[in-house]
Each structure stands twice: as structure tokens, then as C-alpha cells.
């Protein structure tokens, strides 16, 4: 080697590294999905090729917020790029989607719906050490035990159950039937219902575990069980289609019982039941998307009307909008030096106000929102809060 060649070679290497570090788009190359101009978000969600009304609405709400944000300059000058895959409401597909999105270089995972798919995405997020922000589902496993990479926004089903049962108690109802999936998650929800009932001085007189592919004979058996147990109120965890059918069968049998439900599928149930839904009470994890009582609802309505003057509002779209706004606020709080580790650190020391709905996170508890409102189906099918 000639004299001076080693020094020249070293200088060339150092100059190349300096150029790479300063090159646009490579400043944050240590964490995928972040460049000078973009933040890439990975979204696996239950759309079922357009058949899942809530998923389609939620995805529309996400895009509504992100499109407006990008038009205003994004987060710190970076545009949000939303990459979406349809998990078809299948847990295996949801997990595979999450892994593919991470492999393809997204910064965080975001916004699955339904309990099974959200839990599957949580598993991938924990293993791959990638934050999962805003799963739109209520399983207790998303919060307990603490999941270091999972940051829910909406309230969990336990809070919805408490609101429904407390309302029932306030109107003189004393006994409860609970319609739930015959699964590990459904049984966990049943245990929460029993704990809440004990706290409120109510009796859980009839658990109704259900599997898929129910027959008319199965529904007839459930109606007879309800008739025998005589609960004052009944509410569901998910399964809106089967629960709707149970309500029809029970009312046809002349059973007088207060039918209630959680937010999941509430619009679908009310629409499907028509006049039979009148007076039903549903818990909701977002404010009324039709009223203008809260700032976040007004903001959502104004954004939707800016895109389409006669825009139709929905719970799903508002939840998607709120969840997207929460992520944007977290990304902004993390600052220009954006990394997954920094995002987690910032989230665990932050409270956010979305506009009348507050979120709370801490190192020992990723609570998110505990906002639950109650709605009743009016004679004309509208939800009154």
C-alpha cells in the first residue's frame, strides 16, 4: 500500500458516511417508516371486502383525519402514509398482515377492530417490538396484564358493561343475563360482568355462551332459558347478528325484558330490528356523531362536510377520526427526532385531550379513554344520547 493511501481511503469512507447521514430520507434510518417527508403507518383492519360496515366507516374516519392533516402540512412537515390490509375478521390473517406491514417497513401498527384480530396484532407487536396504537376493540387482554407496546384509545368493554348495569340499577332492574362468545375472551368478559354485578348489588342469573353457526333450535333454547331465569336485563358482548336474532325471537315469544347492548354493532342491530329496537339502550365509546355538544364531534362533522356537503355521520367514522387524531397528537409530542422507543416513552408520560374526550397513559397502565356514553333508540330509529 502506498504512503498516504490509508488516510485517503479513510477520508473517503468518512465522507460517504456523512453524506448518507445527511441525505434526505435517511436521517432516521434506524427506525423504518420515518423519513424527512413521511411517516408510514401500518393498518390491518376488518373490512371483509366492504361488508363490515363498522370497519369501512372507521377506515373512512381515519382517512378523513389524515387527509386533512396532510393538506395542512402533516406532523412536523411529514405526511402520514396509511398502508391498509383487510384481515377479513380472521385472527391468523390479522397477525400475518401485521408481520407483513412491519416487514415492509411501517413505523407503527395502527387501528385494528374486533377482539380476535386486535389480540392477534397485539401478539405480533409484542414480539416484533413495534408499537400498536389505537386498537378499536375492548378485550381486557389489551390492557391487563400491561402490554408495553399497546396503546388503546377507546374505553374497554368492562367500562361499557358497568355503564349499562349501573343504568339498569338506577331504573330498578336487579338481575342480569349476559350474551357472550363461548371463547376465552367471552369468558373473561363474563368474569368482569360478575365482578361489576357484585359491586352494584345485582345478580347474574343467566350466562348465555354462544358459538358460531347457531341454528333456530339453539335460539329457541336460549329463549326458553331466558323465560325460566327471568332476568330483568340482558346485554351482549359482540356478535351483533346473532344477538339481533335473539331479540327478535324473544320479543316474538312475548318476553318482557330490557334488551341493551355494547357499542359494537349497535347501528347494525338498531337498523336490522327496525321498530323492535325502540327503547333499547346501547353504550357508546364516542360522543354522538350527530350532535355538536363536544368539540371533537363538531370538528369531525365540519371535516366531513368540507369533503361532502351532505356527509352521513356514524359512530364508526367518528371513532376512526378520533383514533387517528390521537396518533397524530402522540407523533407530534414525540418531536422531530422520531423513533419507536421515543414514541413509547412520550406516550407513557402523556395525557391528551381530543376535544372533550381525554386519554391517559402511564408506564404501569395504558388506559387511554374511559369515556362511555349511553344512547337510546328513538321511535324513528335515531340514537338519542
In short, what is this structure?
This protein has 385 residues and is an alpha/beta fold. Helices cover 44% and strands 18% of the residues.
Descriptive overview:
It is a single chain. By secondary structure, the protein is an alpha/beta fold. 44% of the residues lie in helices and 18% in strands. A seven-stranded mixed sheet has the order 7-6-8-9-10-14-15, sandwiched between helices. Residues 1-7 and 9-29 have low confidence and may be disordered.
Rg, Å, rounded: 24 Å
Terminus-to-terminus distance: 82 Å
The count of β-strands is 15
Shape type: globular
* Mean pLDDT over all positions: 92
Largest sheet: 7 strands, mixed
Derived structural class: alpha/beta
Low-confidence stretches: 1-7, 9-29
Q: Reading side by side through the largest sheet, how are the strands ordered? A: 7-6-8-9-10-14-15
Helix content: 40-55%
Q: Beta-strand percentage?
A: 15-25%
Number of helices: 12
What is the N-to-C order of secondary-structure elements (H for helix, E for strand)? HEHEHEHEEHEHEHEHEHEHHHEEEEE
Amino acid at each position: 500500500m502506498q504512503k498516504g493511501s490509508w488516510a485517503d481511503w479513510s477520508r473517503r469512507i468518512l465522507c460517504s458516511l456523512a453524506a448518507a447521514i445527511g441525505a434526505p430520507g435517511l436521517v432516521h434510518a434506524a427506525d423504518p417508516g420515518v423519513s424527512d417527508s413521511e411517516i408510514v403507518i401500518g393498518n390491518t383492519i376488518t373490512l371483509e371486502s366492504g361488508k363490515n360496515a363498522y370497519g369501512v366507516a372507521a377506515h373512512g374516519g381515519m382517512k378523513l383525519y389524515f387527509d386533512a392533516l396532510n393538506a395542512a402540512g402533516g406532523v412536523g412537515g411529514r405526511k402520514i402514509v396509511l398502508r391498509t390490509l383487510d384481515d377479513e375478521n380472521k385472527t391468523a390473517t390479522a397477525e400475518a398482515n401485521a408481520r407483513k406491514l412491519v416487514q415492509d417497513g411501517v413505523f407503527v401498527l395502527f387501528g385494528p377492530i374486533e377482539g380476535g384480530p386486535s389480540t392477534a396484532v397485539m401478539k405480533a407487536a409484542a414480539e416484533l417490538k413495534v408499537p400498536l396504537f389505537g386498537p378499536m376493540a375492548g378485550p381486557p387482554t389489551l390492557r391487563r396484564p400491561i402490554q408495553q407496546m399497546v396503546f388503546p384509545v377507546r374505553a374497554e368493554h368492562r367500562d361499557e358493561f358497568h355503564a349499562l348495569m349501573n343504568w339498569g340499577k338506577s331504573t330498578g332492574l336487579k338481575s342480569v343475563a349476559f350474551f357472550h362468545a363461548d371463547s376465552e375472551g367471552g369468558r373473561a368478559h363474563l368474569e368482569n360482568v360478575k365482578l361489576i354485578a357484585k359491586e352494584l348489588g345485582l345478580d347474574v342469573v343467566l350466562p348465555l355462551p354462544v358459538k358460531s353457526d347457531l341454528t333456530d333450535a339453539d335460539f329457541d333454547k336460549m329463549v326458553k332459558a331466558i323465560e325460566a331465569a327471568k332476568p330483568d336485563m340482558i346485554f351482549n358482548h359482540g356478535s351483533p347478528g346473532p344477538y339481533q336474532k335473539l331479540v327478535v325471537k324473544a320479543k316474538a315469544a312475548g318476553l318482557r325484558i330490557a334488551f341493551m347492548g355494547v357499542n359494537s354493532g349497535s347501528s347494525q342491530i338498531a337498523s336490522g330490528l327496525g321498530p323492535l329496537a325502540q327503547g333499547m339502550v346501547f353504550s357508546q365509546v364516542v360522543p354522538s356523531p350527530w350532535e355538536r355538544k363536544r368539540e371533537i364531534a363538531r370538528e369531525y362533522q365540519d371535516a366531513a362536510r368540507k369533503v361532502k356537503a351532505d356527509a352521513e355521520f356514524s359512530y364508526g367514522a367518528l371513532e376512526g377520526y378520533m383514533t387517528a387524531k390521537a396518533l397524530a397528537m402522540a407523533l407530534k409530542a414525540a418531536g422531530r427526532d422520531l423513533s419507536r422507543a421515543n414514541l413509547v416513552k412520550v406516550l407513557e408520560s402523556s395525557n391528551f385531550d381530543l376535544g372533550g374526550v381525554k386519554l391517559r397513559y402511564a408506564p404501569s397502565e395504558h388506559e387511554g379513554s374511559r369515556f362511555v356514553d349511553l344512547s337510546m333508540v328513538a321511535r324513528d330509529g335515531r340514537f338519542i344520547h
